[in-house]
Specification:
The protein is an all-alpha fold and 39 residues long. It is built from one helix and no strands. Keywords: Membrane, Transmembrane, Transmembrane helix.
Length: 39
């Protein structure tokens, strides 16, 4: 039973990390565009 809970927690964190990574990548693109406009 603990094995399933442990696996579920790992998968849950992996999904969160992937979502955060995608959001950060999108923000980085926006910041780069804004920096170019300022220059």
């Amino acid at each position: 039973m603990l094995d399933y809970i442990y696996a579920g927690v790992i998968i849950f964190f992996l999904i969160i990390i992937l979502v955060i990574a995608k959001v950060e990548d999108g923000d980085d693109m926006d910041y780069k565009e804004n920096d170019e406009e300022k220059r």
